[in-house]
Amino acid sequence: MPRKKRRPGGSGRRGEFKVPGFKASGVSCGIKKKRGARDLALIASDVDARVAGVFTRNAVKAAPVLIDMKRVRKGVSRGVVVNSGNANACTGEQGHKDALVVAGLVEKALDAPRSSMMVSSTGVIGVPLEVEKIASAMPALVGALDYEGFEDAAEAMMTTDSFAKTALSRARVGGKTVTIGGVAKGAGMICPDMATMLAFLMTDADISQAALERSLASAVELSFNRIVVDNDTSTNDTVLVFANGVSDCAEIKINTPAYKTFSILMNYVCLKLAHMIVRDGEGATRFVEINVRGAASEAAALKAARTIAESYLVKTALYGGDPNWGRIMAALGRSGVKMKQERVRISLNGVTVVKDGLDAGNEARAARALKAPEIVVRVDLSLGRFSSKVWTSDLTKDYVKINSSYRT
Amino acid sequence: MPRKKRRPGGSGRRGEFKVPGFKASGVSCGIKKKRGARDLALIASDVDARVAGVFTRNAVKAAPVLIDMKRVRKGVSRGVVVNSGNANACTGEQGHKDALVVAGLVEKALDAPRSSMMVSSTGVIGVPLEVEKIASAMPALVGALDYEGFEDAAEAMMTTDSFAKTALSRARVGGKTVTIGGVAKGAGMICPDMATMLAFLMTDADISQAALERSLASAVELSFNRIVVDNDTSTNDTVLVFANGVSDCAEIKINTPAYKTFSILMNYVCLKLAHMIVRDGEGATRFVEINVRGAASEAAALKAARTIAESYLVKTALYGGDPNWGRIMAALGRSGVKMKQERVRISLNGVTVVKDGLDAGNEARAARALKAPEIVVRVDLSLGRFSSKVWTSDLTKDYVKINSSYRT
């Protein structure tokens, strides 16, 4: 299906995206049906890097996810090889062997230690991986490795994404410049079986294993775990961070000023990638922030925000530009969080539509405000001091069209 | 929006639907914008009836729901007055007063005891109820009461329903013929703010309060609580049963053969109405049964079935006739129920698509089977002896179209 390139985002021109000590490449190996489409990516650190990861909570996990979950425990890696077009999920023992073969091919070509490469796949479920195609493309993939190759790698990870997603951030940490860069592909609102979110983060920071893990977990919780596209969790969702230490900064340890700065960079990159994923949702015409405040607990604020973001009826109303606050109230009510109806206040892009739980009489103004492509739904429960944000998109006819069309 | 009348269902010709000792009527009072459209219904028992109810679990409850929840505790009622076109939800204290006034008007006109009438509303949220319109129509409403008036009443409860929903069942209980009849309006996949499910059941059985409550709760759990339309729970969902005892059967008590017969009738009527609601889902083109068996517990079977039924991706695939079993596996995996991937078997209308957790290679046959308007998705977890069924419809472009169009 033809799609226009929207909001290219990312770090801009080729060459601007660099993380010292990391190379990347993206080539075509022929798994994707479209001739010449990039479908094989490699990210490699020049030296051993610390690694941490967050993986899908889906009980049905793709073969590469199971391998990475094991390898990440060692805490050391050289990088990751990624194919798109095939998820290598529900492929049984053969799928597991295939993923190991792919990682081994890269390790051999890079002269890297055994079991040092992570492996990742995204695409159709239940189809055997064509390992021979990946093997044939290996010389080209390794040959193309470049310090400026991240745009190509990001493109090779795409399935139905309409643009490559990259984000970069730098700051002085302990007297040295530290960089974090990330590449991602979209999740959900996505073509058959491809509802996978992949993100790979690279940093030249020297950071302790504990600090790296905590910083990643915290950033993922506030970014990738706060976007709602179609409520489905993929078999392949994976976030990995590699820290190769070539910045020569002093080792970053938990609960230090350097850790705080590093975590700000990490949060920024993860949030930027997460927002790009929402913006690139199939068929989406609106980028929507659901902002719940005044909740009795942080968990309640998040649950309320998520329930609103997951409501078909709220999402179709936003698509139609209809300030239909009754649907938001109904979602709040069924979320199960503590609330007093008569205290609820709701605004849409700054226009109050509900005050003291009742119609505020601003429907015409709210309808005009909803014509914007970016919408903030603010809900104040007026019960406590906790708040939470979730990002989502609208539910459109194109979403249904794209997701109901037969896989080809 | 024009919609064709589909599957009229129900009990057939006017006059066939009769429950001894119950009259009903449906008239136009002008709340609905379409001139002459029925929007006010009355169901009245000739004598005091036992009453039991099940109500929405949404924390935001419409005024009439709060009133009925209180009145149902007395265990005695004369019937229910229902308006469509306005939900009387999020209308504050005035809404509460308005609902009491409506019930009082009917009680006076019928010379029924104070607080003996239930009251119910469905329609737009947040708009004050036009009580004066209901008051003006009261003579016509009461004057039209008729033992054969249930089709009119069912029609007057409709919002975006495309057909009136009625179901009737009779059997010999303790030497007497006992009848249960029910009228309902649809839930979900429904125009702005009208995602309400209402069902009113009438029986001439003489039945103890405890038996009536248990039989209703059990039937609702297996019918109205097993249909998934768009995952939203309305502010107004209400199921009431009235038992007036005019059949002269011996009082039905819990755990007797008569109770079992009565419960079979009750289950039948509730399930028939629930299925009609799914069939009448806005935009729906498929009636889908999700049947999970081999689960380790009944709760697990239900949770797995519900997660599949709630998946946007599964529902769009069914709309497209795509035997995309990867989406079903992914939904199973994220449902959180105990499973062993390698034991899973999935069939679509009898065609096995997954065997031992892997592709069964029947895609072409499965695609042909999915052309049918009724689809059974059968999942066998092969872990235990528990099973559960849930009914849903597909997610279509028309659903989005209907629910995104501005309220007018």
What this model shows, in words?
Two copies of one chain form a homodimer. With 408 residues, chain A is an alpha+beta fold. Helix content of chain A is 32%, strand content 27%. Chain A contains eleven helices and 15 strands. In chain A, the strands form two sheets. In chain A, strands 1, 2, 3, 4, 5, 6, 7 and 9 form an eight-stranded mixed β-sheet that branches. In chain A, strands 8-15-10-14-11-12-13 form a seven-stranded mixed β-sheet. In chain A, strand 3 (76-86), helix 2 (92-110) and strand 4 (117-124) form a beta-alpha-beta unit. In chain A, helix 1 (63-71) crosses helix 2 (92-110), helix 5 runs parallel beside helix 6 (257-279) and helix 7 crosses helix 9 (325-334). In chain A, 61% of the residues are buried. At the A-B interface, helix 8, helix 9, strand 13 and helix 11 of A face helix 8, helix 9, strand 13 and helix 11 of B.
